[in-house]
Amino acid sequence: MTAKEKQLTLNLFLLTFVLGTSEFVIVGLLNEISADLNIALSTAGATVSAFALSFAIGTPVLTAIFSRFSKYPLMLILIAVFITGNVITALSGTYTLLILSRILTAIVTGVLIALAMSVASETIPAAKRGKVIAIIFAGFTVASVIGVPLGTFIGQWSGWHSAFWFTSLLGIISLISCSITIPKRLHRTKGSLVKQVRLLGNPRILIAFFIPTLSIAATYTVYTYLTPLMKEVLLVQDRYISLVFLLYGVVSLFSTLLGGKIAARNGIKTLRYAFLLQAVILASLYVSSHSIVTALISISFMALVVYIMNSTMQLYFIDLADKHYPAAKDLASSLNPVSINVGIALGSSLGGFAAANMRLIDVSWIGGFIAVAASLMTFISYLLGRRSSPATDAVPDYAAELERRIG
Description:
Elements: H1 3-24, H2 30-37, H3 41-66, H4 71-91, H5 95-123, H6 126-158, H7 160-181, H8 193-197, H9 203-223, H10 226-233, H11 238-263, H12 267-288, H13 292-304, H14 310-324, H15 329-357, H16 363-387, H17 398-406
């Protein structure tokens, strides 16, 4: 890659790091928010569901509408709105204002992710596109390693509002860097909204959409309530909680790398069994929670499988649109993150139900059942792929293509 392409990749990575930190840091602060706003823990956890649902609903609609506009000014405006949303969250003194600010932040977060993927797809040479997309996705993983533990520490040390002043500052840094490196003359999508929506009618796309949804839902049934689990079940002291999130984040880095290897080796075929392994890992926490050491092992393995489907599914959607629905490339770029956030909403809601009506540790086996459902959906997708003829197969050999691009 040229120096400009490397700098652009780095700044898009920074953008996803900032977006990921803002989205996920609240998970480590649910107890503080619950106490400060005098609300139930499950009510505080609903902020995670609200964010994810707003992301899932708003992203495809606004991405399709905004695709007609020039990407450079659009991205800068949306980053400015993102900063505003975080500032409002930092100023929130009521639950209503907190929810509204998270909804605003969620909507622009989803569109920014789709635009970041689209910018990379348009400006990076085809031979490097797969690698660059993996790097941009890694911003979310690094957010788990650095941003979320640091934000959790700041929030526990000086109040949860401070964590969002921190993400607001990160947003300003990203705004400045993107204003310098994003190309000013990127192509606009000329297709109508109707042409773009046709992508969503493809049966292979519809089935594949639920693969990340169910896998992430399985993890987030547990992850959303990881802080109360550590406090109430594992009896971890407050000062060590950010360290557990750091451990989770570090291990999840390897999940991204593992996901790239899976994508290069017939991803859908491999994921069928990887999700069954995920089910065993999540359910194991039910037994391992009797010991802090064994519980941390379960949590580490949970992090190891959390992002294994990202590279496979992102290239699946992008390559499908590139070949058959060129007017819907921006919309296709949003489908994987949208699917993930539907999964976050589903998982956090199920975790909230368990927290309110069952024992908190029951989130582990509930997550395991959802991972089994992800495996079943992947089996269906794989079988449909094998039955498709070359003339009707909507999906190219994305595994071989990714291997060619990276290699």
